[in-house]
């Protein structure tokens, strides 16, 4: 059983929701990323989504786009992100780490080479934002070979037929995008998100996390009522940027989110 599957099974037994922070590798500089990852776990994170810097992060809003730019100023690459996971694993062998990024860096490395390197580093999952299921077979084959989960995004506009196709390829969990647009955009329509989650749950038993729009304890608690986990990205990345990479500001937000989710028991 993968670390992700084991985690969601344990959370279900304990009636707890997964708290999934997203940070960009190398933002604001590569030297702080591993310590930040540990700080996030210590303040309540269940899974770390580690963003791989990319020059054209099309799904991201301004906050995370700037984080990618800051990381790229230090030439932070996919190889560097893998090295960060390797270092993280020296002290933490339990917390699942999912790389979240775009297809180009993985394709340039080569699917088989990437899969071997990711497995060696201790990566548990890969979420490739711009990889449609129709083009995912070759990558999925290599990830399965090394027991790395392939996590997919589901948008509010995703049809039932397409959800079935994606769920057949996916493992670990599915990432449900809460709104139309880029990360950090708009306000949550809770009724619409609930309807979307219920529609997905009628098709697949994979755990669902919800992201895009989780900004504070209130929104995390509202979403956590009907999903297995919540993802916080832009709000966390902004706090890190505002404080020069100091983990303290990030951990304050994390503890607030953790307390909100745990109050749902």
Give a written overview of the molecule:
There is one protein chain. Helix 2 (33-42) crosses helix 4 (78-89), helix 2 (33-42) packs parallel to helix 12 and helix 5 crosses helix 6. The protein is globular, with a radius of gyration of 17 Å. 48% of the residues lie in helices and 14% in strands. By secondary structure, it is an alpha/beta fold. The model is unreliable at 181-185 (pLDDT under 50). An eight-stranded parallel beta barrel has the order 1-2-3-4-5-6-7-8, surrounded by nine helices. 48% of the residues are buried. The longest helix has 16 residues, at 247-262. It has a single domain, classed as TIM Barrel (Alpha-Beta Barrel), CATH 3.20.20.
Short description:
The chain is an alpha/beta fold and 265 residues long. Helix content is 48%, strand content 14%. Helix 2 packs parallel to helix 12 (247-262), helix 5 (103-109) crosses helix 6 and helix 10 (217-224) packs parallel to helix 12 (247-262).
